[in-house]
Amino acid sequence: MEKLFRLKEHGTTVQRELIAGLTTFLTMAYILIVNPSMLGSIGDGMTPGAVFTATAISSAIATLVMAFAANLPVALAPGMGLNAFFTFTVVFGMGYSWQIALTAVFLEGILFIILSLINVREAIIKAIPANLKKAVAVGIGLFIALIGFANAGIVVGDSGTIVGLGSIGSGAPLLALLGLIIIIVLYTMKVPGAILIGILLATIIGIPMGVTAVPEGWSPVGHPDAPLLFQFDFSSIFSFQFFTVFFTFLFVDIFDTVGTLVGVSTQAGLISKNGEIPRVKQALLADAIGTVAGAALGTSTVTSYVESTAGVAAGGRTGLTALSTGVLFLLALLFSPLFLLIPGAATAPALIFVGFLMMRPVVDIDFSDPTEGIPAFLAIVMMPFAYSIAEGIVYGVISYVLLKIVTGKFKDITVASWVLFVIFMLRFFIK
Predict the structure, then answer these.
(1) pTM for the predicted model, two decimal places
(2) Is residue 306 domain-resident?
(3) 22-68 per-position pLDDT tens digit
(4) How many domains does one find in the chain?
(5) Were 116 and a residue from 266, 284, 292, 310 both cysteine, which residue would form a disulfide, CB within 3.0 to 4.6 Å?
(6) Cα-flanking dihedrals φ and ψ of residue 223, to 5°?
(7) Are the beta carbons of 10 and 321 closer than 8 angstroms?
(8) Which domain holds residue 329?
């Protein structure tokens, strides 16, 4: 372990790294519950059991690559927000099949591997306006929170006011509110794994409430379902709509990964004096390889998790932390019935709370400059209002370029922004 992960050099021990890995797993294991619930709602062959298996295996693969190739205490799994985009925008909104959505994820992962190998990532990151990067994260947070409220029945459709408050005095809405309160209390008390614990407690509370259905003869241990291997459909890859889908996956994945790596590395004291992340190319490759593996197995984009900071706070400094987290994802395969028992009302609080966590970048957005603030605002609000992450990015980029043009700030418009502006404008005229 010492030779492989250079523990002494990083001022850590095997015991500390293993505890950190367990802490990271506990804080992000909710994805094993939420992802099958979300993608499994698509139906048409995409079952929660198959998605669970794909989620666990792809998370393990990506995290183990991070451990051995990058030696960083960062864990990976299918990303929150990207799974919502996959389900509610691409499949339910645009009408694409889940096979086509998986194809977009697969191709995005392939391109991400190439971009990581040839060091193009810095150019892409610098090309996208800083405020729009932050706005995308905030908008996705609001979108996820809205999905959580709707899944729980707390927010419902209303003919008079578009949306309204559901009946929250009993059943699923009440259970979701109780789960949310539990998560908030635990998080405020800095309890590791607050989200996962909240989900599990809500599931238990839901049994006497009649929300959690326990089948007769149920056992928490069982054999995992087979994943949906290589279910790709390349029939629509040359359409403008497909490009929007493809670019959104790539855009969010790149910035989510880089942002997470910077945050985790900074907290762990691994950032160099020049502000560089150690072995960043290998770290990005782990993300890209995980995404390709995930698409081949049948799940949405895999990305680095900010919950890795919990493991760093517990003392994790090397890839041994990631190694232990990856092994725990594999062990979770033996407990698929336990994870799949959890009802949507118990996972909804996790979506709502993750929405809160994703709101943080809003304080760093420059709203004093209308040419910066307005595009950021449109990107944020169009995601929940249009029920589409893609539309938020489209309206954010278009308004950014237009406002810079009319105010004569042409130098602020990057080549990449011009290209995206033209493509997004064409989509309004060419179907």
Answers:
(1) 0.75
(2) yes
(3) 888 887 888 998 899 999 999 989 999 999 999 999 999 999 999 99
(4) 1
(5) 284
(6) -85, 135
(7) no
(8) 2-426
